[in-house]
Write a structure and sequence with these properties.
With 331 residues, the chain is an alpha+beta fold. The chain has 7 helices and 17 strands. It has 2 domains: 135 residues, D-amino Acid Aminotransferase, Chain A, domain 1, CATH 3.30.470.10; 162 residues, D-amino Acid Aminotransferase, subunit A, domain 2 (D-amino Acid Aminotransferase, Chain A, domain 2, Alpha-Beta Barrel), CATH 3.20.10. Strands 1, 2, 3, 4, 5, 6, 7, 8 and 17 form a 9-stranded antiparallel β-sheet that branches. Strands 9, 10, 11, 12, 13, 14, 15 and 16 form an 8-stranded mixed β-sheet that branches. Strand 15 and strand 16 form a beta hairpin. Pyridoxal-5'-phosphate (PLP) binds next to helix 5 and strand 14.
């Protein structure tokens, strides 16, 4: 239970291989290791993408997966934009349901959940293919039982960085390994120099997102976040929170935001800000740092709007309220 997020895996994963222009019948194999040729395309040219979604234990004993269709669609899109073999969405959906059902008993009780990690890697042993796609690949789905990501009353210190870039500006909407590696140097520097927990990248076109989460500002009755474009990852949590915010009567504004506007609004007394993503749903921000100046966000503590929207989403996920949106799929 004390293990770090995503370090404990269920004993098996489900895998399919793309060889000879077709996908093999998915099968369960040990999740301990994977045999790869050292010349595999992914190891040299980063032909890889992944997804992150969760399954939740409900009071009636069932286990249900949150918005699987959205993650499967995004996985297909990432694979396509990286020129990996075309993903069979129906097959992947069935693989996810099958592996979650097989390890249903290992799904933690609330507030824990089963984190699901579909992964696609280019496996062709072809070092000459630096400028050509991998003709072979593997898709596998790993499962890791997880607890609550952040303790309930912690707020984050966020550095607004207007120089560093998370990734190439037209690669942001792809959930691909290289984007996280390229962001690390900025995150490490922000930790060392500003004791920041996360970096909000704002160099081109204003505020984008952090290393692995979207950014949402709550000011008065308005919920503000960047409009969808190629430069950042289109979070399923972002979309879900905006949907619930509209239903609660907030005005949702999707447009470009500058770092200056964000820190200016952040100090309004009832302002709140949070990072959204599957792991933490909404992680509240207490302090922003921009151009060596510190700003307390609202009260500096976890605010009522973030708490309310997080609870609303959690209640749907854990089956404590009606799923009016058709977001849950039984495994
Ligand atoms: C996964 C991810 C998110 C959050 O997406 P969700 O679908 O809400 O989990 C945001 N930004 C980046 C860079 C991500 O990798």
């Amino acid at each position: 239970m004390a293990k770090a997020f995503g370090t404990e895996f269920v004993p098996e994963m489900i895998i399919t291989r793309f060889e000879g222009n077709q996908w093999s019948q998915p099968e369960f194999v040990s999740s301990d290791s994977l045999a790869l040729h050292p010349g595999s395309h992914v190891l040299h040219y980063a032909s890889t993408c992944f997804e992150g979604l969760k399954a939740f234990r409900h009071p009636d004993g069932s286990v249900k997966i949150f918005r699987m269709d959205q993650n499967v669609k995004r996985f297909e899109q990432s694979s396509r934009l990286l020129a990996l073999p075309q993903v069979d969405e129906a097959m992947l959906s069935q693989m996810i349901v099958d592996v979650v059902a097989r390890f249903k008993d290992l799904t933690p009780e609330p507030p824990g959940s089963m984190y699901i990690r579909p992964t696609h890697i280019g496996t062709e042993a072809a070092i000459g293919k630096a400028a050509a796609p991998s003709g072979e690949s593997m898709v596998y789905v790993l499962l890791t039982p997880v607890g609550d990501y952040f303790s309930a009353d912690t707020t984050l210190r966020l550095l607004l960085d207007d120089e560093g870039m998370r990734c190439a500006p037209d690669n942001g909407m792809i959930k691909t390994g290289g984007n996280y590696a390229s962001a690390l140097k900025h995150i490490i520097r922000a930790k060392a120099e500003y004791q920041a927990d996360q970096v909000l990248f704002c160099s081109i076109g204003g505020v984008t997102e952090t290393g692995a989460a979207n950014f949402i500002l709550f000011d008065g009755d308005e919920v503000l976040t960047k409009a969808l474009d190629d430069s950042f990852l289109h979070g399923v949590t972002r979309d879900s929170v905006l949907t619930l915010a509209r239903e609660y009567g907030f005005t949702v504004t999707e447009r470009d935001l500058t770092a200056e506007e964000v820190v200016d609004r952040a100090t309004h007394p009832d302002c709140e800000a949070a990072l959204s993503g599957t792991a933490a749903i909404l992680a509240p921000i207490g302090t922003m740092i921009f151009k060596d100046q510190e700003y307390t966000v609202g009260s500096g503590k976890v605010g009522p709007k973030v708490s309310k929207l997080k609870k609303a989403l959690n209640d749907i996920q854990f089956g404590l309220t009606e799923d009016n949106h058709g977001w849950m799929t039984e495994a």
